[in-house]
Amino acid sequence: MIPPCPRCGKDDFKKSRDQTNHLNRKHKCKPRNIQEDRINEPVSVTKSDVVPSSSQKETTQLSIEDLANWLANLEIKNNPSIISKKIPKTNAEWFNLIGRKAEISYQSEEDPEAGPGPATQVHRDVEQQDTISKESAQEDIIFKECPVGRDPEKPHRNRSLMSKWVGKIPHPDDNPTYAFIQPIAKPEEYKKLRPKIKEVLQTELHKKDQIKSAIVALCRYSIAKRKSDDTSEPTKVEKYHRGNMRPILLKEDIEEHITKTIGEIDVQIEETLKKGSGYILKLILEIYIETYTLRRALVGSYNPTPPKLANKKCTINPDNQGLIDPETNKPSEKCLQGALGAYFAYQNGHTDHLGQRIFRAKNLKPYLERVKLDGIPMPTPICPRIFNKIEEMNPDISINVWEWKEETATPKPVIASKNIYIPNSCKIENCKHNNPNKCQEKRTHVIHLMALTNITKTEEEKYGQKNHFLWIKNPNGLVFKDTVHHDEKHLCNRCFQSFPSENTLVHHQEHCFGLGEATQRVDLPVKGVNDFEQFKNYSRMINAPCVIIADFEAGNKKPSLINGGKPRLISEQYANSFCYLVHWIDTGDVWGPYLYQGENATQEFVQRIDQELIEINNVLAIKHKRIVTEEDKKKFAKADTCWICKGKFTIDTEEIERLESKKVTKAIASEKAKADKVWDHCHITGKFRGSAHRDCNLKLQIKPWKTPIPVFFHNFRGYDSHLVCESVGCSVNTHQIKVIAETFERYKSMKVGQLKYIDSQQFMNNSLANLTKNLGDDHPITSQHFKDFTPGQISLATHKGIYCYDYIDSQDRFLETELPPIHEFTTTLKGKISQEDYHHAQKVWKTYGCKNLGEYHDLYLKIDVLSLADVWTQFQKTCIKYYELDPSHYVSAPSLSWDAMLKKTGVKIELFTDMSMHDFIEKAKRGGISKASVENVTVGKDWLSPYNEELVNNLDGGRFSKTEKLVPHLGPRKDYVIHYLKLQYYVKLGMVVDEVSEILSFDQTNWLAPYIAFNTEKRQGLRIPLKKTSSSS
User: What's the whole-number average pLDDT of the chain?
Assistant: First the structure.
């Protein structure tokens, strides 16, 4: 028997194919018994043989009392209030009315005698409880697995892999009409929705191991349809809203999938309702849960080729489907073996299954054992040591590994093989291998692999990386768009540089293969586009709008773990407080300092800085009008060069002639004809900065929510970055995090949205105590904050405080009312403090009237932040005075010094655009000189044994002596690259030059000398130590 349609109830299907065609037809069937705002309540009837109501919609609204009066009293038969109501006409309508009459007329009477029989009140109470439980059960959400049919929104090809669950949403009286995420009237109904969906997905995950799922909501809308007589009537419309399909590999993925899907469906509902569509959401009728068996995740490490990479048509993807690993009896994860096997299969003419650029690995079994992979882990991580081991076991192959970025559609080489030649392949007797590319044989097979990386999560919630390797059949096609010239490219297998012709590649390889082992892909500037290096960062000539100066203090929690071995855990640090201020550089205003002491200090800091950023941008959004003075007008009129780029203003000669014809003086005409001359003013203070080109003026714009705001910590790279990273995920800009990392643990800078965290110690590599001491009495920000105190109190605040770091192991320490003894100020890193330092701490406690250690701590932290603000302000003024650059725009001293050099010298340095020039210079770079001295040693003691040269008495020296070194010698040089001045010196000493094969000519000037001389002169009187090293940065 064929089951009826689950939607419309049609049950006259003769074959299952009829039902399938019915479900898949273009115009879908409508659910039966659709009623507008109908309340579905459980009904209790007395008889089981009551005729069911018609499947048509209800047509009568006449009450039973009105009907009885109308039939009994003909005098009121023509009463319009009754006639206007619909009277039953068909049998179905009469049956429906009689059924409703039976339901209403049945009234159970209470029995005053509560006996034990079935007709007693006790029995009726039990029946009433059963009725209530059934009623509540009908109001709950129940998901049932139903026939698959077709996906309501997106038909799925592999319907055999699919399961579909349908849950009908109950509609009690107070069910909200619109609220999928945050219900308005009855949130408990939607609280039931999440656990029910989760239960279904857990069931499917248990059955299928790994699934991908989508959730669909069926909603009923009402929209007014206009008739021909200009009247309108409400029409019911049903729409499906579908969430994205997501893979679910673990139970922990279910909650995230439900949360994201609910948000996606809610957005679709909002899109339907807005923009004057006229739709009104009435009900959310049903929820569909679709699950599919995720077979690809079960077949080792297979990944489909990304679309943009597939479009290049240069890779072969080995599919491990159907291969069983004999060692584990599980699907094979040896995709590296498949990729290498695909290469050798293609070399041997096995080109089947290449139409879709996918090799079925089971068809390549004869080639899978071609490469020795003993001891190589599968799946294989991207590690140079592993691939070097493969090359050692297989002397005839060389492997290069690439990674692919689908977002930018660019390949990136990650492993460049150093094994270009076959070991011991030189056939020249007593050869010293000075030029290996001419005496040793190259490896026969150079294989390029593409690694696709997936992030995986284990059941223990540990994240890992899984790679899938593709064979790059056409490496030249991979770099086809390296240049704007879309001609055939020829790739160098060593440095990954592409060349337009094979001749240029061969010429390049003569130099490239003779270089050292360090290989990298070189991106050269384009001639005529970016082939000159000069100062371009004009926006860094003006002050940053403001800077945030901050600092953390941490407590030391005693460790509960005992670590074995030499390293030991001394303490676990946690942030217990922070302080920060906002310094507006142009106006001199200071917001703060703001101080916090308590639990979750790092999280509180991130949230407060986010809030502070809103206030900063509110200020930046206010554009102050320019302040015009007579003196500024004169400066503007006299200026003939741009104060930003120092370039001359252009003059429109035609405009001068036009103005002179109107009897305007030549001077005034020339001034007005300077079309690109504009008034440049500060948008924070309104002050005149100078006359500028229109384009230069636009480069100095300050844009709210875009201009970076620096946040300075002293030693952010080594310490404070760890504390910030603990809670940076709480920031509203957590999706915009970028770091400049030295290592996995040390960040030179971290950008979180508009905020740019910088380490001030990268500019001034000294302790804050020494930097504060160098300022002398110049502490404007500290003095302004303590302006209500006496000069003696202010002088204490201008010195670095003394703090008991290791003593603070809990918040309770802050309640102590006395300064700890001197031995408690001893720290693991710095050791004991002097008696003089302890007296200073006692003086600060007494002078500022600290009542407990918490107040002393707050004062110490506040003085640290104020001192750093004074140090940075002084350093900033020095840089602007000497170099016209604000260091707040930079990350470290080298980047600042580079721009300062370019700006101060005004030099334009020509860059290499030809790879052969680059290789020529690289070949001239040589390492340090080693000297091998041999002394004549004789044994002068009779009691010593005779010398035996086979005895090893210098293990390290003997091992290192076998390493190839650059040794000065008087032998011949061939293909030797040398500067002409040194060559002249060698010729003077007696060297004979036989042949000059290549010459690279260039112009050389002492353009850097003025910059070095300037720094040497200015460093003598500086108190801030950075500029003492600016010449060498």
Answer: 74
More confident residue, 433 or 593: 593
Nearest to 387 by CA among 413, 411, 415, 422: 415
What is the C-alpha to C-alpha distance for residues 160 and 109, in angstroms, rounded to an integer?
A: 57
Q: Both 6 and 43 in a single domain? A: no
Output the six-digit token pair for 124. Answer: 């009726």
Q: Tens of pLDDT along 663-708?
A: 555 555 555 545 578 899 998 889 999 999 888 888 888 888 889 9
Statement: residue 800 has pLDDT above 70:
yes
Residues 426 and 444 in one domain: yes
Query: Do 287 and 163 fall into the same domain?
Result: yes
Separation of alpha carbons 728 and 711, rounded Å: 14
Say if 286 falls within a structural domain. Answer: yes
Across the range 624-652, mean pLDDT stands at 86
Q: Which residue has the higher pLDDT, 256 or 182?
A: 256
CB count in 10 Å sphere of residue 901? 22
- Residue 198 makes CB contacts below 8 A (sequence gap 6+) with 254, 255, 258
Are the beta carbons of 485 and 500 closer than 8 angstroms?
Answer: yes
- Length reported for the chain: 1033
DSSP 9-20: -----SSHHHHH
User: Given the structure tokens 């206009």, which residue do they identify?
Assistant: 226
Long-range pairs, 122-127, Cβ under 8 A, ≥24: none
Same domain flag for 69 and 198: no
Structure tokens at 391: 């090359």
The more confidently predicted of residues 712 and 1013 is 712
| Nearest Cα residue to 478 out of 404, 567, 385 | 404
Of 856, 798, 806, nearest in space to 832 by CA: 806
pLDDT tens per residue across span 374-426: 777 777 777 777 888 888 888 888 888 888 777 667 777 877 777 777 777 67
Q: Does 210 have pLDDT greater than 80?
A: no
432 domain-assigned: yes
Span of 43-57, 127-141, 673-687, 706-720 with lowest mean pLDDT: 43-57
17/46 same-domain check: no
Beta bridge partners of 451: 403, 469
Please state, in angstroms and rounded to a whole number, the distance separating the CA atoms of residues 913 and 174: 74
Quote the number of domains for the chain: 5
8 Å CB contact between 290 and 143: no
Start-to-end Cα distance in the chain? 86
663: DSSP letter:
T
In whole angstroms, give the CA distance from residue 284 to residue 268: 13
The reply to whether 786 falls in a domain is no
Here the tokens at position 808 are: 């603070």
Residue pair 265/217 in contact by the 8 Å Cβ criterion: yes
Could you tell me if residue 48 is inside a domain?
yes
Closest CA to 263 of 184, 188, 180: 180
Place of tokens 């349908």: 166
611 and 725 assigned to the same domain = yes
Rounded CA-CA distance 176/186 in Å is: 6
Amino acid at 541: M
Measured over all CA atoms, what is the biggest interatomic distance in the chain, rounded to whole angstroms?
A: 154
Identify whether the C-beta of residue 686 lies closer than 8 Å to the C-beta of residue 626: yes
305-314, 491-500, 875-884, 969-978: least confident range: 491-500
Query: Domain of 239?
Result: 143-296
Amino acid, single-letter form, for residue 553: E
For 21, 279, 309, 510, 918, the CA distances from 973, given in Å and listed in that order, are 85, 87, 47, 16, 21
User: In Å, what is the CA distance from 84 to each residue of 66, 305, 851?
Assistant: 12, 70, 87
What value does the mean pLDDT take over residues 795-811? 87
What's the one-letter identity of residue 370? Answer: R
List the structure tokens of 812. Answer: 């309770």
Residue type, 644: I
pLDDT digits (tens, 9 = 90+) for 525-554: 888 888 889 999 999 999 999 999 999 999
- Give the H/E segment covering residue 804: none
